[in-house]
Amino acid sequence: MSHPIHISDALYARIAAFAAQCGQEVDRTAETLLEQSITEIEPSDVEIDDDFDPLAEFLGAFDSSGLPPLDPREHDLYFAGKDLNAQKND
Q1: How many CB atoms lie within 10 A of CB 34?
Q2: Is residue 74 part of a domain?
Q3: Which of 6, 18, 55, 79 has minimal CB crowding within 10 Å?
């Protein structure tokens, strides 16, 4: 069974160029790229053993009610109070 998906012409051109470099059909290359991408972003089935987690004793130890949820992409803002990745215009 197959299912059509719609992608931009620009993305198709990138996939087609990659397929040509690999000597593969565009459809097969696109399928392979999608499979690899999905595998990378799927949640892991690995369970973390609290006996080996050095921070396990701190889980739930602090009251975080009233605080906004932490966004890992803004780590520097939360902990240093500034964006350490921002480039200075000096």
Answers
A1: 12
A2: no
A3: 6
